[in-house]
Design brief:
By secondary structure, this protein is α+β, with helices and mostly antiparallel strands. The chain contains seven helices and seven strands, in the order ββββααβββααααα. Strands 1-2-3-4-7-6-5 form a seven-stranded mixed β-barrel. Strand 5 and strand 6 form a beta hairpin. InterPro entries: SAS-6_N (IPR032396), SAS-6_N_sf (IPR038558).
Length: 489
């Protein structure tokens, strides 16, 4: 890709339910250079302070035609990149002014910058804001962010390597200069030593000659003056050489300090280079681990989706079962209410039957005196009594089955609702009352058997006893049929 534009621009970021903020966003425009393939235009927004901030948009010729129709553009696809770059340059040139004409906006419908965002170039005037161009950019996926970070890391590595090479070159040049200056300093020291020795020897010879000539009075002043001049010249030359030596020593110290600084900088850069390489290896391993985690997460997501679908089906089935159980509970409650009403009626019938049984006991007592006359018809009555006993047995079996049904109903109600325990206790009390009624019925049958024995011992008064017994039997059959019918219900 050929990079056409890459600058940091002031962009106003707007998110839903949050205040506007200014941010320095790097806008990069790239285009494929090959004329054979489609010349797609890539627009990328990045933030140097946030490595995960990445928005991309790829514009093909077909996409540009749609954009041209939607926003009323008057240019073609070939000139669109240059015009877009001119707009961005206008924004860049005016971003430092107090009231810029051209502004850049990045707006997002979500509370944070994620998903898609709209990048808008706006021109402001005294009348209104004019939108020159609006582009819909998509937030970079995980793979795109990883590729972008890898490119940034490689560029950083190349830049640090370039800086390191430059510093090494500068250090080598400084070392060469330092060696040359050191050689010059040694040469100057040697020259100064030689010159000092030659001057000293010359001055000593001249002094000896002057001393020899000092005998002559005429030349004494001249010799003294010449000696003074030579001494001043020697002192001046010595001072000049000493100042030169001081300057060379100072420059030597400076070069030595620069050498040490460059060597320390080289060591630091080597350490940074090693750290950058280690960071690169770590990031590569992290990218590989993230790819593996991404694949495992994809499989886990598929499994979770499948499990969610199964759980949804299970929830639907359970909801249907709950509805069915609610209906069953409702019907069971209705049955319980009906059973309670039947129990109330059974209690009322039981009370009435108790009264009737008391009356029957009194009647049996009265009949025991009259049954002396019923010996003649005892055989017929025995058959009728057997039929009566069969009826009683059938009714007893019906009562037992009804008790079982009531017990099953009470158990189901106990599993459905714990609040029905009071109703179960009432059912138990009603069962006890029914058992009492059974006991009373057995007592009545026992009394009937006693009456039968009395009839066997008495052979007189058969017709009168028969008539009385028939009356008692009819009354007893009617009274015994009523409670069993109520129990069957």
């Amino acid at each position: 890709m050929e990079k056409l534009f890459s600058k940091e621009l002031h962009v106003t970021v707007k998110c839903r339910d949050s205040e506007e903020r200014k941010a320095n966003i790097r806008v990069t425009i790239e285009q494929s250079p090959s004329p054979v393939h489609k010349r797609d235009l890539l627009v990328r927004l990045t933030d140097n302070g946030d490595p995960y901030f990445l928005f991309n948009l790829t514009i093909s010729e077909e996409d540009f035609q749609t954009l041209k129709v939607q926003q009323g553009l008057l240019i073609d696809f070939a000139s669109f990149p240059q015009k877009f770059i001119e707009l961005l340059n206008l924004c860049y040139s005016e971003q430092e002014s107090d009231s810029p004409r051209f502004l850049l906006y990045l707006s997002c419908q979500s509370p944070v910058l994620e998903g898609s965002a709209t990048f808008t170039v706006v021109e402001t005037n005294a009348f209104k804001h004019l939108n020159h161009l609006s582009l819909r950019l998509a937030h970079g996926s995980d793979n795109e962010v990883k590729e972008y970070l890898a490119v940034c890391l490689s560029s950083l590595k190349v830049g640090s390597f370039t800086v390191l090479i430059y510093l090494l070159t500068v250090t080598v040049l400084l070392l060469q200069t330092l060696c040359e200056k050191t050689k010059e300093l040694d040469k100057l020291r040697l020259e100064w030593t030689n010159q000092t020795s030659t001057l000293s020897s010359c001055h000593s010879q001249e002094l000896q000659l002057e001393r020899q000539k000092a005998v002559e009075n005429k030349l004494q002043q001249h010799t003294e003056q010449l000696r003074q001049e030579l001494e001043s010249a020697h002192i001046k030359a010595s001072q000049q050489l000493q100042s030169r030596l001081t300057e060379l020593e100072a420059s030597c110290r400076e070069l030595t300090e620069k050498k040490y600084k460059n060597e320390s900088a080289i060591r630091d850069l080597k350490i940074k280079l090693v750290g950058a390489e280690e960071e690169s290896q770590r990031l590569k391993q992290q990218v590989l681990s993230l790819r593996r985690e991404n694949s495992t997460l994809d499989t886990e997501v598929h499994e979770k989706e499948r499990l969610v679908s199964q759980l949804q089906m299970r929830v639907a089935v359970l909801e249907q079962e709950i509805k069915d159980k609610d209906q069953l509970m409702h019907s069971t409650k209705e049955m319980l209410e009906a059973t309670q009403e039947q129990r109330k009626s059974v209690e009322e019938n039981a009370e009435s039957k108790e009264l009737k049984i008391k009356k029957l006991e009194a009647t049996v007592k009265s009949l025991s005196e009259e049954l002396i006359k019923a010996n003649g018809i005892i055989k017929k009555l025995q058959g009728e009594v057997r039929g009566l006993v069969r009826k009683i047995n059938v009714k007893n079996t019906v009562t037992v089955s009804q008790e079982k049904v009531l017990q099953d109903t009470s158990e189901k109600l106990q599993s459905v609702e714990t609040a029905l325990q009071s109703a179960q206790q009432q059912l138990i009390s009603k069962d006890e009352q029914v058992s009492k009624l059974k006991e009373q019925l057995e007592m009545t049958v026992q009394k009937l058997n006693e009456s039968r024995e009395v009839l066997k011992t008495n052979e007189n008064g058969e017709e009168a006893s028969f008539a009385c017994f028939m009356m008692w039997y009819n009354n007893t059959e009617v009274e015994l049929d009523d409670p069993f019918q109520s129990l069957s219900v």
